[in-house]
Specification:
This protein has 300 residues and is of the alpha/beta class. It has two domains: 3-219, Rossmann fold, CATH 3.40.50; 225-299, Alpha-Beta Plaits (2-Layer Sandwich), CATH 3.30.70. It has eleven helices and 14 strands. The protein has helices at residues 41-48, 70-76, 92-102, 111-121, 134-146, 164-178, 191-194, 214-219, 233-242, 267-276, 291-299; strands at 3-12, 15-25, 30-34, 56-61, 64-65, 77-80, 152-156, 183-188, 199-204, 207-212, 225-229, 246-252, 255-260, 283-287. The strands form three sheets. Strands 6-7-8-3-9-10 form a six-stranded mixed β-sheet, sandwiched between helices. Helix 3 (92-102) packs parallel to helix 5 and helix 4 (111-121) runs antiparallel to helix 5. It is elongated and about 70 Å long.
Length: 300
């Protein structure tokens, strides 16, 4: 295993950020830690990258203990924190040279690792990092995390605040990096990115809810799911939440994803109920659950 986590717990005063977390990440795997802000993702990343010490439990990265072998881990991993943390007043090239020098290497020595990414920002190599766009900052941070040829790459919400096109480009880059043999642990609040991972772990309020492949996770959704729409989405949500037979109802794009708590659910009865609430243009259609639906059900 590239990463092993055994019964890790961590608290900040009266807030327990992690509660008895355990899972493994295989060598060469692209593993996703999926959950909302405040779920405990960043705390776990900081423990695994030796920036925090857990209250209890043990963890290893590349067979190195995160407490005893912290120096070895720092030399063998790449870490891209959620907040852009490079030197804003240094240029793109100066930042990259700085991080290469820290690890006793050079841009030329490991250029093959960053080439696909760096060519996109090289035209701006003399621009200060603080003046880059969000997508360009993201690419520079990834280059700096890769320049010393790490065995394991930690990416903490790398696409937060980045436009959809840059998000797609970033995940294409991750897939190419994975082919070089690098183990990647990435956290994200975006459920659509979860489907791009080999395996995912749902985390909520410091606890792991489920771990499996994206396809297997979706199969865990046990209810029949419906897309429901009407002429007034706000009133639709309020009416469904007040309906006595509602198991779950939450917005999903232009629809409300709805599941009923009855085995013999009859759409016509729900349709009549919604019309009695002065809703028009009501549609009720079967739909397939997504990773997000499964997370919502597990977190319920």
């Amino acid at each position: 295993m590239s990463i092993t986590i055994n019964h890790i717990s961590k608290s900040y005063k009266n807030v327990q950020a992690l509660k008895d977390i355990s899972f493994d990440v295989k060598a060469g795997e692209l593993f996703g830690l999926i959950g909302p802000d405040g779920a405990g993702k960043t705390t776990l990343f900081r423990i695994l990258t030796t920036l925090l010490i857990a209250d209890s439990g043990k963890a290893t990265v590349s067979n190195f203990d995160v407490v005893i072998d912290y120096k070895k881990i720092r030399n063998s991993v790449g870490y891209m924190p959620g907040k852009f943390s490079l030197y804003q007043d240094l240029t793109v090239e100066e930042n990259l040279n700085f991080f290469a020098t820290i690890f006793g290497t050079s841009i030329e020595e490991n250029y093959h690792l960053i080439k696909d990414i760096y060519v996109q920002i090289e035209p701006f190599k003399n621009r200060r990092a603080g003046k880059l766009s969000g997508g360009m900052k993201q690419k520079l941070a990834l280059c700096c995390a890769l320049i010393h040829k790490p065995e394991v790459l930690f990416l903490d919400e790398p696409t937060t605040g980045v436009d959809p096109v840059s998000r797609k480009e970033f995940w294409d880059m991750l897939k190419r990096l994975q082919q070089t043999g690098i183990t990647i642990l990435v956290s994200t609040p975006y459920m659509d990115e979860a489907a791009l991972c080999d395996r995912i772990a749902f985390i909520q309020n410091g606890s792991i809810l489920e771990i499996d492949t994206p396809k297997a996770i979706v199969k865990h959704f046990s209810k029949t799911l419906y897309n429901i729409s009407a002429d007034n989405m706000y009133q639709l949500m309020e009416s469904l939440r007040a309906y006595e037979h509602t198991y779950s109802a939450y917005p999903f794009g232009e629809y409300v994803h709805y599941s009923d708590n009855r085995i013999d659910f009859k759409p016509n009865e729900l349709n009549d109920y919604l019309k009695s609430k002065d809703l028009n243009e009501v549609t009720i259609e079967l739909t397939q659950p997504t990773i997000e639906d499964t997370f919502m059900a597990l977190a319920k």
